[in-house]
Amino acid sequence: EWHSAIHDEL
Amino acid sequence: MNIFRLAGDMTHLLSIIVLLLKIQATKSCAGVSLKTQELYAVVFVTRYLDLFYSFISLYNTVMKIIFLLTAFTIIWYMRKHKVVCQTYDKEQDTFRVLFLIVPCFVLALLVNHEMSVTEVLWTFSIYLEAVAILPQLVLLQRTKNVDNLTGNYIFMLGSYRALYLVNWVYRYFTELGYRQWIVWVSGTVQTCVYLDFFYYYVQAWRNNERMKLPG
């Protein structure tokens, strides 16, 4: 969801 | 993961490898800013704290560990390697990093997604990364002549950010509800920081000459 979507980049 | 994001990550990784190879092969870190390298180490440590509590993918974990290890390896070379450390331009590399760290931290406290330790540190790392190249650019400006490898290193770092911008546009149109303003605004600022450098890099490349920055 949203939280993991914005933390999936390096 | 889309092709732009992967290309961005690979360019980022390649830029670090180029820098490490330059240091190892020439046994010199002349023209490289230790301040910028230390800022990157701070960026990676504060951003990748989630290694301890969340798992996104094997790719994600491995890349994070590589970025952390290479950042500290570069710092080790510049500070401790008995030949390399003597080539460090300490007198020229005088940027006051606290002028970057403190405002970024205050901004992270004010503008974030969630008031928690890890989230504020993650946001701080996003803001800090946007400006972490500045000591390196100031050092280049001072020493004027840019050797090819250092020039390529900075060019690749800038390209990595530009590819991330394209990745965000792609994600915006392909992922429903995907938006992340903090990262977008900081990433745009970060890419703009390189524009001046890009101009002189491309000019030198087109004229087939060594890159020089104006005084």
UniProtKB/TrEMBL annotation, chain B:
The secretion signal range is 1-25
Q: Which GO terms describe its cellular component?
A: endoplasmic reticulum membrane
GO MF term set: ER retention sequence binding
Q: Biological process (GO) annotations? A: protein retention in ER lumen; protein transport; vesicle-mediated transport
Transmembrane ranges, per UniProt, are: 51-77, 97-115, 121-140, 152-170, 182-202
- Alphabetical list of Pfam families matching this protein: ER_lumen_recept (PF00810)
Q: Where in the cell is it found?
A: Endoplasmic reticulum membrane
Record keywords, A-Z = Endoplasmic reticulum, ER-Golgi transport, Membrane, Protein transport, Receptor, Signal, Transmembrane, Transmembrane helix, Transport
Q: How does it sit in the membrane?
A: Multi-pass membrane protein
Q: What InterPro entries does the annotation carry?
A: ER_ret_rcpt
Q: Which PANTHER family match?
A: ER LUMEN PROTEIN RETAINING RECEPTOR
Return the similarity comment.
Belongs to the ERD2 family.
Q: What is this protein called?
A: ER lumen protein-retaining receptor
Source organism of the structure: Pycnococcus provasolii
